[in-house]
Amino acid sequence: MDVTFREDESYYLDLTPCRQGEKEDEVIDTVPLPVIGTVPLTFISPTSTADIPHTPSTMPSTMPSTTDIPHTSPSHHPSLIAPLPHVYHRRKPGTQPTIAPLLPMLSSDSDPDADLHVPIARLHGKARCTEHPISNHVAYDRLSKPHQSFIASLSEISIPKTWQEALCIPVWAQAMKEEMSALEKNHTCDVTSLPPGKKPIGSRWVFSVKQNQDGKVERYKSRLVARGYTQTQGVDYQETFAPVAKMDSIRVIISCAAILDWELHQLDIKNAFLHGDLEEEVYMSFPPGFVKKGQERFVCRLWKSLYGLKQSPRAWFGRFHKAMIKFGYKQGHSDHTLFVKRNEGKIVVLIVYVDDIVITRNDTNEISKLKGLLSAEFEVKDLGKLRYFLGIEVTRSDKGIFISQRKYVLDLLTETGMLGCAPANTPMEENHKIDQDSNGDRTDAPSYQRLVGKLLYLSHTRPDITYAVGILSRYMHAPRVRHQEDAYRVLRYLKKSPGRGLMFSKNKHLRIEVFTDADWAECHDDRKSTTGYCTFIGGNLVTWRSKKQSVVARSSAEAEYRSMSQGLCEGLWLSILLQDLGLKEEAPISLYCDNKAAIGIAHNPVQHDRTKHVEVDCHFIKDHLDKGSLVTPFVHSRDQLADVFTKSLGSDAFTDDIHKLRMIDIYHPT
């Protein structure tokens, strides 16, 4: 097992800002220092461009050589990056600084600002508090030794930001060579002259790391990515749509795996997009770092899809879909990236997110056979048991499966300069209302949008920030300083428990339960209401949502009724997904609501004058009530689990609600 829960400890931890016996220092200011501008990186290359001898300007017949990559000793690498300006902060006289470690696995504290690139942080002209070390909020003593190694590996990985930097590091330079070799092997492109009237698209290098089940680096990935945003529709691309796995579907599969004790296997398809065939005529400039003197006027004619092209996802998924159908699998009705095969009462389930694959269910022989078929069709790497998927850490114990984005949170805090900030108890102050603030000072829109986008992705495993992030996302087009400060409040809350996530327990049933709520006329800008709902399968939280309603509700009952309708849609989709997984519903869907008027309208829609404008919703819910596929029990407001998705609660109520949602933190110090 990856983690052990001790019987003499509370299952839900009491989270406090400081360790027992420590005195919390006075907070000077929690607004992070901004970056005045991008700090230029100075690179020292053993072979400059000027040193390359001129070659005759003749057309090459093959892709450029992958052997002419400059190599330097790793010892030269630290000196390549120019140092950032110092960030100063105030300390109390006579006290020793306590600085949060950049790598949380280290036992001693280190300076988080050393060699730190902070693209999101903004300047407010005030000092940042660094007297709240992250070590107060993250610990790893509960984890097994193998999983500690896995977590340490995730925390220590450093990824280059430019191709020049990558070429100076041997492992990344080798990864770039392998990518170029894969392009040649797959006959992705040919080198040719640019025809008249054609315009080549550019390209760039993107770097990432794959880990194996022990947490060790499996592969350093260098991807050559085309600048597809320069393509023209109707000229070098046509259709672009391709499905990707819903995160909701992935959570449902993990929940069912925890309840029914399924094994979860993970595969990775190497160079997935290179397998798709292009129908359009597309030209691309030479890959950066591989242009030789005399070859500047030549381009690459693409025959197969490449990462970054508009049509690449569609071309790749079309190829993968054909392969799965050939293997005898059927596409799911609830999620088109889900493939299922039934054989003599046994089932195999596969779900794919671009090139990352999860396989589960109870037919071990068919799973092994499927791995062989995929390996014969594509270049596949078997990553073993599911541990790390799309930035989500998966931990298994005898009590169930725990998922979190611990590393993602720590990286985000580091990137924004908030690793040493004072933690907050809630993501938003109690009863705090946010509006357009039309007269407020504007803030940097790109940095705000990037920060909120990262928080939106984090909400896939952190339902506790869903409401706050949903409110902040309403003002992406014209953010103000006030909105930026509210976004930093969410970061301060994340600082308190970076490792908090969802626990999928081994319960004894698969009942679908939906809790719906609404905050009537909550938005001060247009007085539209906010819908909130959360759904459970087998007592485990699998989906949730917080969204502003599209029309103005005339009463609280109407707002609640619209929420019930949306919650029912989610419950019905979960029912279809369970059928795709070969599971049967054990009971009607339970739709919990704390508004008796809305429940009354559902059962007896007789108030025609007051409800005719929501008649479609009325008939929709009433129809399922008559079929017996739905029940609508009343739930008291104090037991309404969807409250956290419709309003900002106080610390006690908020903590109680997220505990009921089965959110825990296995990394928090005891």
TrEMBL record:
Concerning Pfam families, the annotation shows: RVT_2
Give the Low complexity compositional bias ranges: 55-67
SUPFAM superfamilies cross-referenced by the UniProt entry: DNA/RNA polymerases (SSF56672)
Q: Region Disordered: list its residue ranges.
A: 47-75
Domain Reverse transcriptase Ty1/copia-type, first and last residues per copy: 186-429
Protein name (record) = Reverse transcriptase Ty1/copia-type domain-containing protein
